[in-house]
Amino acid sequence: MSLPISCHSNQFGTLGQIDPSHLAEIAKQGYKSVINNRPDFEAGPDQPINAEIQAQAEALGLNYAFLPVIPGAFTQEQVEEMARLLKTMPGPILAFCRSGARSTTLYQMALQVP
To answer: How do 6-9 and 12-15 pair as beta strands?
Structure first.
């Protein structure tokens, strides 16, 4: 399996929606932490939910954070929390959402936080 991860630096990448089965490959690629930026049930009942993904991530020894954001409606608190996660979670870090765009935008905004 080859996941289409967009690498923004040697410590951060983004990806579209994952399911628990993808986490072994994510860990194999060297990621130490995962940030979920997608609200549960955004795409309906077939979307893997945060609790399932978190359980598998932790079973594989990955650090995990749930920071759901709505596209185009980022709050200052969410940006600051993303900045905090980027500074405190072991890297490299992978963030995901529906397509990866929201996680990329949040990452870029978080880099501007002093």
So the answer is: antiparallel
pLDDT tens figures, 43-80: 899 999 999 999 999 999 999 999 999 988 999 999 99
In a domain, 4, yes or no: no
List the structure tokens of 44. 């309906």
Q: Does the predicted TM-score (pTM) go above 0.90?
A: yes
Nearest CA-CA partner of 99 in 57, 45, 46, 42? 42
pLDDT score of 72: 86
d(CA 55, CA 62): 10
For the four alpha carbons of 73, 76, 81 and 86, in that order, the dihedral sign comes to positive
Q: Which domain holds residue 35?
A: 9-110
Question: Do 35 and 82 contact (CB within 8 A), yes or no?
Answer: yes
How many structural domains is the chain composed of? 1
